[in-house]
Amino acid sequence: MCQESMRADSVRDSIETYSDMVYRLAFSMMKNKYDADDIHQEVFVQYISNYHLLGSEEHKRAWLIRVTINTCKNWWKSAWKRKVCGMFDGQAITQQDESILQWETQYPVVEQIRKLPQKYKAVIHLFYYEEMSIKEIAKVLGLKESNVRARLTRARQKLKELL
Amino acid sequence: MEGGNRMFQGEYKKAYDEIKAEHGSVNEILACAEAKNGYKRKRIQWKHAIAICMAIISLFVGVSISPYAKTAKMALNLYEAGFIDYTSYKSLQRNYPEFNYGIVPENASVPRNGIVMTVEAVAFYKREMVVIFSFANEEGNDFIQEGGDYHWNEIKVCIDGEEVDFGYTETGKFNVENGKKYFVYRAQRGTARYPEDEIVSISVKGCFTVDRWEESYSSPDLALEADTRVVELHSTHVDEYILESHSSYEVEDIVKLENDDYPYNASVLDMIPLSEIKVGEAKITGAAYLDGILRVQLCQSANTVYDEFFQRAYIVRNNEDGEQILPNPVGQVVWYEKIEGELVEFREEYYVVAEETAREFPLVLEVLEERGYSDTVWNVEFVVE
User: Measured between CA atoms, how close is B26 to chain A, in angstroms?
Assistant: First the structure.
């Protein structure tokens, strides 16, 4: 029982430690906070099933980042979402929360980044917000470093065109 | 650009500092996980219980029954074969020592759209199973030269028609020796049995984006005289007509606007006939040093069908140490021509370069291409012996 309780505390601590990180990453890739909420919950439900397989804090963080990104991708690709959402320039438009619109208006750079294709958003967020190195991002996402570098370059180029 | 990046980062961080998960969400998550039975994991050591039962039974029947007779058929160590990385191997070893071994199905490959999926190994242990599969081109090599983005929206495994539920996914390590990328997926099965003589069906439905960088040395002789022609910059693309100046040059002098109304007309190099340009091919279509400005013109895909194909070409010039020496352009114009019924994007960029160095080192076109393969289904079936 004591062991159960210790495990529960450990899981709770991990969720509290990484909750904002997962939520921000999900939010950066989704169009609204409701979807980010769903992704956030889904990621940690998976975490609870698998936390015992994760070793160091570094491993946990990398795992959470990867699963968050994959869960976001699965969400976008699900047939149900395709039927429900309209398409514009390859990106789905969902209903925008007023507060999110106001938040975007305050930060024009962020507003433009949120218009970029999905694959750029994750790399931008991990590089500029989580301040991970190219090497770390490549390792977490399972990509080559040159690929990560290319995406950052392209993202900056697209941003330059949009701003 | 460095200063610009720092400002951008500052704004981005400030914005996302305001984004936080809601309070109370931890309790919701724990409740949800409990509801899905994902939180309480039985930690009973089944193998010890079975071993004890078998030992007792063997005393009565007088034969030696090993509870692991079926696992002895797992012949391939997944870690040694390079399918799983060391961290996964250690965590599996801690919890399921026999799980490190997998069976290798024969001829479990299926090609679709030029991409071959191969089920490399499958491992079963009690309620868990691991599927390791790889993707390669038809020559057996990784078809992604500079890395790519795989995504699949459905992986289905059935054993004799009964679907296995995948509750956890993990990407295995990239095997650099033969260029194939391995993927490791773990699932919890509904039944704890080794599927001997049963048909295992594995299907993957996915989509792939292949990123490719190419360097093509298209360095035409730098002309000191060149014909020009007038092109129309349509109002819908006037945002791409950049009049920003990174130097003291007046860009209007370079571009020679014909009038101030929409659409703008611009005078651009006329060095290669449109008939020599193929749709989908990026190339340098002209380079000239006129009036103290290096003008480079290129064409690339108009990227009208973004989901399937995206192409972006960049002009670079490297010195003998491989360092980029071309400065930022002081301006550019972008316009579109219809070739063979399709739109092709043209871009002319203007660089301030001293005449004595204008011919040093060739101009290089770097082409980035992304190809998206539409959803494809690969299905492999085999019998476990």
Answer: 7
